[in-house]
């Protein structure tokens, strides 16, 4: 007998891990808007609006600012496969899981990959990266900004100038950090940045915003090819460079699709475009500085609450992301069992980590729509009760109380004009 299926009924969850998070209701409403054709003038208008909005999010004037249909990893792969020619040298500094991801993708692109590694929970100094660039002489530097596996945020401010002096293209994966931590694409000299919606942008996974500098676009256009089935013959380069080793992620063709030529490449994921546009609109209307300050405020309140529960923070706190924190799992406690209890008893999801940190830390995210006072306090209250039932001695109300004390002090300082909402996070 065939099984009977019904509509999906997902359980109610408060997603307070390292991502994904609960999408903003306004984004969910945008996702449900009616579909239109990809060449409808309204669609072209929304695509242009989306490009302009994301220039504000990335803090750039780059014309080449658009969406890749796919998760944040799709954006990463599109940039790397389009910028890297087989045999070129690429430098990847690794301070967590996602640096290893950049290395693997660059290797799959045929690059000669060189790495620089530091202990998980730390970041690199600019002079370390500069020395490696001078030694390796890469074509591309691929560097994660915020790595959720360690919660660290790599400072980028000085790296762009180094890359310009050495003739290196500078790419950063800002999936976990964009809109929760400062990222100034033009001011810091970034040539390519990619992100996702499922963290500080308050949306679902499935669309990857990216931006390319004119230098990066020049490299991509030098490898431009037009599919034979849509080519007029006159739209091809006389001497095209090495063809980009992916059709779907070929940014030269994607740029033609989003640009004035509007050459067909794929059918745009209309609903995801609506959602991604709404994510950017919410941030631009809030103001990027205000959004970052909100993440810093509530992220630090979570940290104060975790300390109030007697939990030890992991990593270099001077370089922790505003929006994700990690604590050591108390000795003798079943870390996965506690996470399961949080989910089953309270409907709250928190995370562990990967590789050398798996089973050793919990990661808690305060980002996007969930970067709010009520979500912080609810999570801390549930965590306290779950710890106590697991045999961990905590001060009754210690977590919520410490967070409330922090909020109260912040309000007092704000009233006196001295509030520093970015305390506890670095760019």
From TrEMBL:
Organism superkingdom: Bacteria
Cofactor: pyridoxal 5'-phosphate
Pfam families, per the entry: Aminotran_5
Keyword Transferase tagged: yes
Full protein name: Alanine--glyoxylate aminotransferase family protein
Keyword Transferase: yes
Domain Aminotransferase class V positions: 44-350
Listed Gene3D superfamilies: Aspartate Aminotransferase, domain 1, Type I PLP-dependent aspartate aminotransferase-like (Major domain)
Keyword annotations: Aminotransferase, Pyridoxal phosphate, Transferase
GO molecular function term, any single one: transaminase activity
Family: Belongs to the class-V pyridoxal-phosphate-dependent aminotransferase family.
């Amino acid at each position: 007998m065939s099984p009977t299926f019904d509509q999906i009924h997902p359980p109610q969850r408060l997603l307070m891990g390292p991502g994904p998070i609960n999408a903003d209701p306004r984004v969910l409403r945008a996702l449900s808007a009616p579909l239109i054709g990809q060449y409808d003038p309204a669609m072209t208008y929304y695509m242009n609006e989306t490009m302009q909005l994301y220039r504000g999010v990335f803090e750039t004037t780059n014309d080449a600012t658009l969406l890749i249909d796919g998760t944040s990893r799709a954006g990463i792969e599109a940039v790397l496969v389009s910028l890297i020619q087989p045999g070129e040298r690429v430098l990847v500094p690794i301070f967590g899981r996602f640096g290893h991801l950049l290395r693997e993708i660059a290797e799959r692109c045929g690059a000669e990959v060189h790495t620089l590694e530091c202990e998980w929970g730390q970041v690199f100094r600019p002079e370390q990266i500069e020395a490696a660039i001078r030694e390796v002489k890469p074509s591309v530097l691929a560097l994660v900004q915020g790595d959720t596996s360690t919660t660290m945020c790599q400072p980028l401010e000085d790296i762009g100038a180094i890359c310009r002096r050495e003739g290196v293209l500078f790419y950063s994966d800002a999936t976990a950090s964009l809109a929760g931590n400062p990222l100034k694409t033009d001011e810091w000299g970034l040539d390519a940045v990619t992100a996702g919606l499922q963290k500080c942008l308050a949306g679902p996974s499935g669309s990857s915003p990216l931006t390319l500098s004119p230098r990066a676009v020049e490299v991509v256009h030098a490898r431009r090819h037009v599919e034979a089935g849509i080519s007029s013959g006159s739209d091809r380069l006389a001497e095209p460079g090495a063809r980009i080793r992916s059709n779907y992620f070929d940014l030269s063709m994607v740029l033609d699709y989003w640009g004035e030529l509007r050459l067909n490449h794929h059918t745009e994921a209309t609903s995801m475009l609506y959602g991604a546009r709404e994510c950017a609109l919410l941030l631009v209307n809030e103001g990027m500085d205000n959004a970052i300050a909100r993440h810093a405020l509530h992220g630090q309140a979570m940290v104060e609450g975790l300390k109030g529960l007697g939990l030890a923070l992991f990593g270099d706190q001077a370089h922790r992301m505003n929006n994700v924190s990690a604590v050591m799992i108390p000795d003798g406690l079943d870390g996965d069992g506690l996470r399961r209890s949080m989910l089953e008893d309270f409907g709250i999801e928190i995370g562990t980590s990967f590789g050398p940190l798996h089973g050793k830390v919990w990661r808690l995210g305060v980002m996007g729509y969930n970067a709010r006072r009520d979500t912080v306090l609810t999570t801390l209250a549930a965590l306290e009760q779950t710890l106590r039932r697991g045999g961990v001695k905590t001060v009754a109300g210690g977590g919520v109380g410490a967070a409330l004390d922090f909020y109260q002090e912040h309000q007092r300082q704000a009233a006196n004009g001295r509030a520093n909402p970015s305390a506890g996070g670095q760019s």
